[in-house]
Amino acid sequence: MPTQRESDEAAIRQHVGKIVEGLRAKDLDGLRSLYAADVVSFDVEPPLQHVGVEAKMKNWTNVFAVFETVDYEVRDLTLTVGDEVAFGHCFGRLSGTLKNGTATSGMWVRGTFCFRKADGRWLIAHDQASVPFDLATGRGVVDLQP
Q1: Helix (H, G, I), strand (E, B), or coil: what is residue 142?
Q2: Where are the domains positioned within the chain?
Q3: Segments of the chain with pLDDT less than 70
Q4: May I ask the CATH architecture of the domain 4-130?
Q5: Contact 34/16 with Cβ under 8 angstroms?
Q6: What integer pLDDT is reported at residue 81 of this predicted model?
Q7: At a CB cut-off of 8 Å and minimum separation 6, what does 70 contact?
Q8: What are phi and psi of 82, to 5 degrees?
Q9: CA–CA separation, 86 and 76 (whole Å)
């Protein structure tokens, strides 16, 4: 029989899988249900922070406005799970076909998730997507592979 921590880790991994499913299906309602109402997101597009689930949904709406088809890949997800909070990091890549018909393999980003358990359910309380940058130019480096 799995321990509570093992069960929680499995639930969180399923949760991350639901993010992938929601993006592929362009399912904003499904995605919304995965985040805490007060989520704070540090995404790759401005501003520096997006506060609240509606701000996070606006980010995904922007993605869906640009992409005809969306794919998302998560690689090397590592989790640390406590009783009420958990965190993890991974690499993520958004790709697909743009509205103009151009296929794009996207770019890999570094992803961090922070989860909070609420009423027995894990929700994303914070996420961050980032790319390294070149100190000399101040530009993001977006051609790296995990």
Answers
A1: coil
A2: 4-130
A3: none
A4: Roll (3.10)
A5: no
A6: 98
A7: 23, 24, 26, 63, 64, 94, 95, 96
A8: -110, -170
A9: 16
